[in-house]
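SEVERITY: medium
COMPONENT: batch folding queue
REPORTER: lab tech (J.R.)

DESCRIPTION
The queue accepted two submissions in a row. Attaching both inputs and their returned structure tokens so the on-call engineer can compare them side by side.

ATTACHMENT 1
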Amino acid sequence: MASTAGSASGMQNDRVTIDMKIGQMLIAGFRGLEVKPAMPIIEEIKAFHLGGVILYDRDVMTGSPVRNVKSPQQVSDLVAGLQVASEIPLLVTIDQEGGLVDRLRPDRGFPSSLSASYLGGKNDLDLTRRRAGAMASNLRQIGVNLNLAPVVDLNVNPNNPIIGRRKRSFSDDPTIVTAHAKAFVEAHHEHDVLCCLKHFPGHGSSATDSHLGFTEVTDSWTPNELIPYTNLINSNHADTVMISHVFHEKLEPEYPATLSRRIITGMLREKMGYDGVVISDDLQMGAISKHYGFESALRNAINAGTDLITLGNNQVFEEGLIGRAFMLIKDMIEDGRIPTERVEEAYGRVRRLKGLG
């Protein structure tokens, strides 16, 4: 799906440097409503060849209700300005699930949305398709080309603070989740918007929120949580897959899923046959940042099989974060801690996702 292809000159094989390949692995969050020449994100796009950006409605760190989203025209202008600054077309991402996870809200001039829980409860696939189509049409109009949705977690624990209570799951039934996720993805594809299945291998059974800290699912997770992924991969409805920060001791005794080669490469790629782009959940979330050093997290996530590293810079804000991540990755490639082949593999997948060959 050539959703980002425009001026692809920066992706010609004979011009691609290792710096470009590293940069294409990074998705950056940023502050600002409009493009300005000295804006840090513009400098980072140009200096580090960023693969993409992620838009947020509010700034968690400061408590400001406005970060990147004020109105449809404002977002459209912002995204257009970011694309102009980038030699390589950007993935412009957002968490627009519907319901409570709704970055584009009616009070800012955007259409209303329905939660996955509501749609799954109605179990009317035509309704899901229509609402997802309206959402995707709006995303395309403002320049967003990758929606970090749908959630395909099963509603195993209705009291789960980040999935169940927030009405983010279609159902506890994998058949219903699969059907509605498929309708959601197909509706987005009709408007040339990519999707992301999340949060692999399943966040629906957890009792805690991985945004805040360590999230254990060893005793609550079941293999049924893989069924929607298996179905959607096999039916070619998995543009990208986001890996969660959950910890499952029996699947991986040492690391959370985001940092686990056993889970990403062993389970998702080798056992389930997925060869598309793997996206990390935000590496600044508490489940990672409170337990692993930044350098270690980057190394393990990439070596585990992650192709796109998300650095939202929102829950916490670090000036110069993107440059630091870029240089750490480059240093680890140069000294062999990250194999060059792993970066080449990730770059190839991102290139295909962007429709650039």
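ATTACHMENT 2
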Amino acid sequence: MHYSSGNYEAFVRPRKPEGADKKTAWFVGSGLAGLAGAAFLIRDGGVSGDRITILEELGIPGGALDGLDVPEKGFVIRGGREMEEHFECLWDLYRSIPSLEIEDASVLDEFYRLNKDDPNFSLQRTTQNQGQDVPDKALLTLNDKAQKDLLSVFLATREEMENKRINEVFGEDFLKSNFWLYWRTMFAFEEWHSALEMKLYLHRFIHHIGSLADFSSLKFNRYNQYESMVLPLVKWLTDHGVTFRYGVEVTDVDFDIQPGRKQATRIHWKERGVEGGVDLAPDDLVFITIGSLTENSDNGDHKTPAKLNEGPAPAWDLWRRIAAKDPAFGRPDVFGAHIPETKWASASITALDARIPAYVEKITKRNPFTGKIVSAGIVTVKDSAWLLSWTVHRQPHFKKQPKDQMIAWFYALFVDKPGDYVKKPMQECTGEEITQEWLYHLGVPVEDIPELAASGASTVPTMMPYITAFFMPRQAGDRPDVVPEGAVNFAFIGQFAESKQRDCIFTTEYSVRTPMEAVYTLMNVERGVP
């Protein structure tokens, strides 16, 4: 595998690699990494889709790319996806996936036309004092000391940033700036997260610094990421003969490890409680999604808080079993054993009362029901005790969403601190209480909040114990290489695999880059990876 520069190789159709007709492939996990890997294996690796199987513990594909109407709860979106022009691997994939919305167009065509006709631009990036403007919101407020810290981290070596926290390399001047407020809430950084990843983010998104205050560099889907991104890809794979097996929990993978050579020899699983598996020959490829940011997520409802599930975590336990077999397979507990530092909560708010969209319109300065952008990204409440942010995407956010309902997504970085209106931590709050806190910061009169929160919305809180696990301070070797040295028939994919030379984590781009690198390496695809 090699990396390409420029667009010389972007339009090349690689020749079928030698031996492609003999290959059989197994994917552990049907998140974006697994789906993308299967697509690259077919399109660029020349492997027939009917020789590819995707194993998934849950009953639906998509992993963290969700968007569901959950029975007896309502519409649920655990998170949102910010995308931009330089997601080279993501767009390389979706240029080949047919749109489900537009005839004779790709998903990329659909996405391009949408964002060309309705470009993203936030009119209110932050508020304070119960929905009021922040006078210096257009400024990054970086003084000389803060700028020096920023430059020092940018120019530091990777080794100098290993195993350090953000608050170890940035001083108080930087941590009080609008730059940090915008950066941390846009990307979900905490002060105790990895200084190395912060450095990589600065390199990766340096072109966004000028638009931190207005999000004009961002682009969004028409609907939630499940309907806009997962379903078209799953249909394309299914049409090409790929087998999806749901309800299959992969519990272990066996390896034959010799000096200079590593081969996966068997996949073990439980399928609806029955143990099984498959033996692997050298021509049988296995692509393993390790770790999970949404593992053990729990949904509450309008009257019930979401639970923090600290119990057994199958995706993490699988990686632990694999890692015990070879030092090259990573150190999962660096990431998956720190729930107090990696958790946060979100909430899906369905507004049923027309008064709520009116308050949203007052802040965003846009009517939520035009079908066009509304908040254009998150609105962060600068003086919120929870450090909460919320967003209203293009409505409807779900195809089946009633036309008079508005869906907002809400999240907080400080889930264990008491709120400003609700005097309890977000992680202990029902959907109704989260709605109360949101309405308070929208500027709803205090006397109207209880009634409007009780009957004017239906809110589903979600607790995610591992949502920022990949941001924990780390060093080289904590994440395994996508294709470890000597590996002949297996690769690690997803957010916890190491793409050493390019990119940062917690993006759809990274979820597509790692399987692209994996397929191109194991299949010896002649075309370069962007």
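NOTES FROM REPORTER
Residues 20-84+223-331+489-522 form a domain with the FAD/NAD(P)-binding domain fold (CATH 3.50.50.60).
No errors were logged for either attachment.
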